[in-house]
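note to self: dont lose this again. the chain is below, predicted strucutre after it. 402 aa total, dont forget to put it in the shared folder this time
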Amino acid sequence: MRYLARRCSAALGGALLLLAAACGKPEADLPGDAYVWQRSWTPPVSQALAGGADVVRAWRVLIAEMNPDGRWSGAAPDLAALAAAKRPAIMVLRLDGRADALPAADVLARIEAASSAWRAAGVALAGIEIDYDCPTSKLPAYAAFLESLKRGLGPDLPLSITALPTWLNGSGLDALLRIPDESVLQVHAVLSPEQGLFNARRASAWLAAYADRTRRPWRVALPTYGSRVSWNDDGSIAAVESERSALLAGGRASELVATPAAIAAFVDEIHGARPRGLAGIVWFRLPTARDERAWSLATWRAVVTRQPLLPALSVTARAGNAQGAQDLILANGGNADAALPFAIRWDGACRAVDGINGYTLEQDSGGAYLRRSHDGLLRAGSQRNIGWIRCENGPQSFHVQP
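---
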């Protein structure tokens, strides 16, 4: 009887193996690159590079930016840190979208000079990327620039470009996309306070449309950050702050955030139904300890490796000033960054309370509460003072409303 059971088990196992072979192996996760966009490589940038090297395929490193008038401002990558990370690196040159003149000879000269320095430092140069927010009407002129640049680079140095969803309406897109070896579609953008920084449904539509237009490998750029955007009275953008940490007062402004949970869900979506030709994800941007509008490095690693995100928000009252007020501390004890909760309520008889750092005092039928006035993220392991409270016997408990 035991022999028969073993034979049946072996037969069943063999059948399952044959079925798995017939169906094929599941596709591997899309490889991830990361943009290193800092102009000045402070120690936190180099530390983040070392802390993220094991989860990326390649770095895409900003080396210079051309202003609308043709003047250049350079970045200063830490080549020793880049070499120590032992990952291929792609040089990125950003050309301001308002620039009309695209000097291919100047760009090639900068690439040649930087390439010599990178190779001397032991950096594995894997290609060149041009980041140019070209107006759709000027795609043919951009294509001519890329043709010239491609000839100058030669066959051994791949050329990549960033691409905008607005180009999908341009008649010159197909010709343009035949020139570079690959492209990176950007699906995060500041359009309006209502549309936010990232919209999964809109991004999915863009990916599907782009897959139908290009015949070369392409990647999608996904955000790891938030921005504070100021708006003019006519609805146009007055200013965008993506790397500064303060919640600035005055003006009509919005804090737009790409939450880790939303981006992780989108990554799962594109893995479940992978668009044709999609070769990978490029993360914008590599988080650092000082970049307070970007996710924490721990959260970014969890999203990149598709691990569960487990934030844990709580509020406690701590001894404050001599008048008996206590500071209200919002903390995240989980392993992932969390969106700032919408409201904080409490039990107990309290005489006075007020909010700070993105929270204001409000009143409804349930009593007084602190309401979020700005969207934002609280990093894993971090805390924020969101106000103060004065109660007869201290608040009994707090309730965090997402």
